[in-house]
DNA-binding response regulator (Streptomyces botrytidirepellens), 214 residues
Amino acid sequence: MRAVIAEDSVLLRIGLVKVLETAGFEVRAEAADAEGLLTAVEEHRPDIAVVDVRMPPGFTDEGVRAALLIRQQWPDTAVLLLSQYVEERYAADLLTAHTSGIGYLLKQRVADVEEFIDALRRVAGGGTALDPQVVSQLLVRRHSDPLDRLTRRERDVLELMAGGRSNAGIAAALVVSESAVAKHINSIFVKLDLPVADADHRRVLAVLRFLGVS
């Protein structure tokens, strides 16, 4: 898979290149700012862009704004954002606008190479990867709603779904069968009033409601 990296810290950028190449990604370009990132994505059309949230010149939300633009103009390019701190507003903006090919992790997760590579592959494949701390802070913002109908186990299943886990991944984490996970998920859909509809992805809608961004 092809990748581009946007990170103004030279040391971290070098580290990211090595991790991605170790995972079998072909790093087509590196950028130190949002403008360079957009130029690289337009030229190389990568499968995934790994982007720092705060980049020159303002060191505020340049990476997030670039990510939103990438997902709009080049929807085949997934985006994995890296942040020094949890900034739930940025994560909520991304999840509200896009429901696939999006990741938001804290930079400290890069140190766990295996976990980071798993997140990279999941996002590049069209899934989502949210840092557990991001999920926790988004949940603080949630108001009382149909989620209160869920059992403790259903909440556990939905939280793992929010982290991008497949049914098999959820089953392994909770030490239950995949059929049990499927039953919990169907119950979640019913309790969250998410009927079957061709135009909607109920799994994504359930996660968005869980995170309080829909």
The mean pLDDT is 86. The domain at 146-211 is CATH 1.10.10.10 (Arc Repressor Mutant, subunit A). The two ends are 32 Å apart (CA to CA). Residues 178-191 form the longest helix (14 residues).
